[in-house]
Structures are given as structure tokens and as C-alpha cells.
Amino acid sequence: QQPVQSPQAVILREGEDAVINCSSSKALYSVHWYRQKHGEAPVFLMILLKGGEQKGHDKISASFNEKKQQSSLYLTASQLSYSGTYFCGTEYGDDKIIFGKGTRLHILP
Amino acid sequence: GAGVSQTPSNKVTEKGKYVELRCDPISGHTALYWYRQSLGQGPEFLIYFQGTGAADDSGLPNDRFFAVRPEGSVSTLKIQRTERGDSAVYLCASSQTSGRGNEQFFGPGTRLTVL
After folding, report:
1. Above 60 in pLDDT, residue A59?
2. How far apart are CA B19 and CA B17, in angstroms?
3. Chain B residue with the nearest C-alpha to that of A28
4. Residue A103: pLDDT band by 50, 70, 90 thresholds?
5. Around Cβ B108, how many Cβ atoms within 10 Å?
């Protein structure tokens, strides 16, 4: 049930865009996105719910395709502070989140 | 307005010993979650509490692991007869309540090293 994230890692130059994908083999109730910097706790970015509701930071955008059981996180005009590991977490109606293995994002100046 | 706190921040123990890891959630948050994170991996769900009761403990790897939350606030994760494979960062998170759409706030974690 662990979601699959792609790519595993990406290197960008500051100002470039990136898309991180998350897919599940099972019907999703919600998708959660977090960012974790080395040695720190994961920090909430966004929740996407079945039915279209979203909660999150204004500067982050994401999509949730319920039919395909996929979510994508869009990082536009990347900044150095965006560096870190991005985790998607999937929830299947049982109130617990199963996290993927993460996508490591490195932004070069 | 403090966030989630966890103590100790680091714990080094010997194989076979007993350890307790503490989590103090954000005040007023009724849901509390424990995760384990190994190097290069995402957080792995262990158990979650809604109030004082364990709503789902399906992620606990075996009966050496146990967690309590007797008054619905602070929680303690207890590991008996520790093994080297238990070495990891143990993360705690809390949310206002359980259920979909609730943001989880993570603590800084306890790094457990079993020698």
C-alpha cells in the first residue's frame, strides 16, 4: 500500500520548475504532501481530499486524479529554500497516513 | 504556542535494554501519531491515538513495542529488549483530531541507536 513517488531525485537551478508524482495501487481518500530538510521534522505542505477539497500553503500547488489514484506536486520558480525531501502520504479511509520513500530535491544557485 | 516536543532528542542504548520515548503534543490536539523513520526512507506508521485510546496499532512491528497515552495528552512509546534493527528516528505527530483533511504537526524526533 506504500505509494510510489517519482522521480527519486531531481536537481534544478534556481527559478526552474519541477513536478513530483505520487501514485497508489489502491483507491485514495486523501493525499498529504510534506517536505523534510536534513535532520529536521517533516513540515506540512498540502492535503488533497477525495471530492476536490484542498488545504495548504498558497505558494504550493498540487493535483489529485481520483480515477488514476495519482497526485502531483508542482514547484514553480524554485527557490533555494525548496531544497529537501518531499514525501507524499496516502490515506485510505482509516485515518492513518502511509508515506512514500520520498523525492530528494536539490536546488542550485 | 509550543509545537510538538519529544524527549530525549538522542538515545543510545545497548541491545536487550528497555527504552521509553516521550511525546508532548500540541495542546488541545486529540490525535497523536507515532512513526519510525530509517535513513533514506519515509516515516513508517506505528500507532495512533484518538484521545486516550489506541485507535490503530497495526504498524507496531511486534510485541516488544507498546505505547500509552493515559491522560490523552503526553504519550510514551516503550520498546522492550531492544535490537539493533530498532535503530531509527522515532517521530511523533499530533493533529486537532483524527480523520481526513487534518494536518499533522511533527516533532523533531528521537534518534534511537541500539549498540
Report:
1. yes
2. 7
3. B100
4. very high
5. 17
Give A99's contacts in chain B (Cβ within 8 Å). 35, 42-45
**Whether pLDDT at B58 is above 90:** yes
Question: Over the stretch B69-89, which tens digit does the pLDDT of each residue have?
Answer: 999 899 999 999 999 999 999
| Long-range contacts at B7-13 (CB < 8 A, ≥ 24 apart) | B7/B110, B8/B110, B9/B108, B9/B109, B9/B110, B9/B111, B10/B110, B10/B111, B10/B113, B11/B110, B11/B111, B11/B112, B11/B113, B12/B113, B12/B115, B13/B82, B13/B112, B13/B113, B13/B114, B13/B115
- Å between B15 CA and nearest CA of chain A: 25
CB contact under 8 A, B101 and A41: no
| pLDDT at residue number B93 | 96
Mean per-residue pLDDT of chain B: 94
Distance (Å, rounded) from C-alpha A5 to C-alpha A70? 10
Tell if the CB–CB gap between A42 and B59 is shorter than 8 Å. no
Alpha-carbon distance of A104 to A56, in angstroms, equals 21
